[in-house]
Amino acid sequence: MACPLCGGEVERQTRTYAITYKHLQANRDLPGVYCGNPDCGEGMVEESAWDEVARVKAELKAEFLGVMTPDHIRQMRVHLNLSQRKAGQIFGGGPNAFQKYETGKVTISQPMNNLLRLVAKYPELMMELQR
Ligand SMILES: [Zn+2]
């Protein structure tokens, strides 16, 4: 495989990346391909690591906004013994809402975050929502 910019030889390396959201930062070691030509220095994170970057960004965004992270949302839903589809029915947002929250594609809103926290603490409230 050759560098798309200079034609130099590229090699696989793991480098530490600072992933940021606003003022928050998380460092992750990510695989990438880098040009060995010192005058070029072209490089990029491997496609396989893009999901990890997106996941970390979603966590930072949740932290910034003071809402639950995707992992935390999933744990809470599993704890309540709900499928993603069922959770979307009960809490609103549609059948795909929780799939989006849990993959970090959509950040949970503050009201949804608060509702989930309440129901996690008082699961009997679900009966009210299911009526
Ligand atoms: Zn190059």
Describe this structure in words.
The protein starts with 9 loop residues before the first strand and ends with a helix. Helix 2 packs across helix 4. The model has no long low-confidence stretch (mean pLDDT 94). 17% of the residues are buried. A 3-stranded antiparallel beta sheet has the order 1-2-3. The protein has 2 domains: 10-49, no CATH class; 70-130, 434 Repressor (Amino-terminal Domain) (Orthogonal Bundle). Strand 2 (24-35) and strand 3 form a beta hairpin. With 131 residues, the chain is of the alpha+beta class. It is 45% helix and 21% strand. The radius of gyration is 20 Å and the shape is elongated. The protein has helices at residues 50-65, 70-79, 84-91, 97-103, 110-121, 125-130; strands at 10-21, 24-35, 43-45. It contains 6 helices and 3 strands. Bound molecules: zinc ion. The site of zinc ion has 8 residues, from loops.
